[in-house]
UniProtKB/TrEMBL annotation:
SUPFAM superfamilies: S-adenosyl-L-methionine-dependent methyltransferases. This is Protein arginine N-methyltransferase 1. Keywords: Methyltransferase, S-adenosyl-L-methionine, Transferase. Residues 62-159 form the Methyltransferase domain. CDD domains: AdoMet_MTases (cd02440). It comes from the Eukaryota. The keyword S-adenosyl-L-methionine applies. GO terms for cellular component: nucleus.
């Protein structure tokens, strides 16, 4: 099979809604791809997972959902795939074609431009799906929906998805100085009162790197998804959490992160995993922080528990609505005065 002309798209951008147009345009520029490629935890995890499972890939038909610059397609081809199909809606696919040609993969990798949901693949079924679909707080961007569509439409019975397991976690954090800086700034901007911005700032989760020492409670897993079986409806979820203070400290809110796991070909082999938590190496996903209105005064062993509800936003399903109901349950002297219950609502966009 020879390289295709990626100038023609199966999807007309003008026909997409404004949110999807904006979403795919954000992946047109090389800058975002540079950031992803240079995220070595991310990219090397994919490379290792694919290379350590060459016996899975050998002579297989592989679909790369959202191929971007083509990096995962080339890993799959290097691992011995019979043929790789890379699909992307963004114009970056034109550069991917040049990369693939320059690296001698033109006969092994076919690129198709358009939404995965609209393109016609040259194969009825594929053996393996590779995709890097994860957004902030795992689900932001809702690209997992597309991977699940690809699974249901194209993956052979017993086919593999790289990666295939993921989980979201939370813990309490002390971040008073940064929280105050972020909010106080708007009280006096060049001598003007900009405080009308404060409610907006409060409702947006903060995506930033959190120092591991700022995490001051135990952790709690909110949810785990198995990509082999999960359904789109399961991606809107309600989960309980419970963490315990590890030291006498203020808890300003919750820090969240996700962990990723790839399949293994041989029983007893350790799967390739990576974490985007504060305890692990830097990734471009950083961590997502949900500040509470209340600052909780914790003693060792005090419990913070509650429920987190997460769903795609009704107006723009690539945005996410998150609401957190929490009860802080202190023990010991002054417990009654320190007990707090609250609710915080966030929009990730
Ligand atoms: C997070 S990037 C990953 C790029 C590349 N796989 C990598 O690992 O560097 C996701 C890519 O998927 C593409 N994408 C997202 N949803 C898509 C869809 N429904 N159809 C086609 N491409 C899609 C985006 O345009 C973007 O280039």
């Amino acid at each position: 099979m020879s390289s295709t002309d990626v100038a023609a798209s199966a999807t007309k951008k003008e026909n997409l809604n404004e949110f999807d147009q904006h979403y795919f345009t954000s992946y047109d520029h090389y800058g975002i791809h540079e950031e992803m490629l240079q995220d070595t935890v991310r990219t090397m995890s994919y490379k290792n997972a694919i290379m350590q499972n060459k016996d899975f890939f050998k002579d297989k038909i592989v679909l790369d959902v959202g191929c971007g610059t083509g990096i995962l397609s080339m890993f799959a081809a290097q691992a011995g795939a019979k043929h790789v199909i890379g699909v992307d809606m963004s114009s970056i696919i034109e550069m991917a074609q040049k990369v693939i040609d320059a690296n001698g993969f033109s006969d092994k990798i076919t690129l198709l431009r358009g939404k995965l949901e609209d393109v016609v693949l040259p194969y009825d079924k594929v053996d393996i799906i590779v995709s890097e679909w994860m957004g902030y707080f795992l689900l932001y961007e809702s690209m997992l929906d597309t991977v699940l569509y690809a699974r249901d439409r194209y993956l052979v019975e017993g086919g593999l998805i790289f990666p295939d397991k993921c989980s979201i976690h939370v813990a309490g954090l002390e971040d008073s100085e940064y929280k105050q800086e972020k909010l106080n700034y708007w009280e006096n901007v060049y001598g003007f009162d900009y405080s009308c911005f404060i409610p907006l700032i409060k409702q947006e989760p903060l995506v930033d790197t959190v120092n591991a020492t700022a995490v001051n409670t135990t952790r709690s897993q909110l949810i785990e998804f198995d990509l082999n079986t999960v359904q789109v409806k399961d991606l809107a979820f309600e989960s309980k959490f419970e963490v315990q203070a590890k030291r006498q400290d203020v808890i300003n809110g919750l820090v969240s992160w996700f962990d990723i796991e790839f399949p293994v070909s041989k029983k007893g082999t350790k799967p390739v995993v990576f974490s985007t938590g504060a305890h692990a190496g830097y990734t471009h996903w950083k961590q997502t922080v949900f500040y509470f209105d209340n600052d909780l005064e914790a003693e060792v062993g005090d419990v913070l528990k509650g429920t987190l509800i997460c769903a795609p936003d009704k107006r723009n399903n690539r945005d996410m609505d998150v609401s957190i109901k929490y009860d802080f349950v202190p023990k010991g002297p002054g417990a009654d005065q320190r007990a707090v219950s609250g609710e915080a609502r966030f929009l990730m966009h």
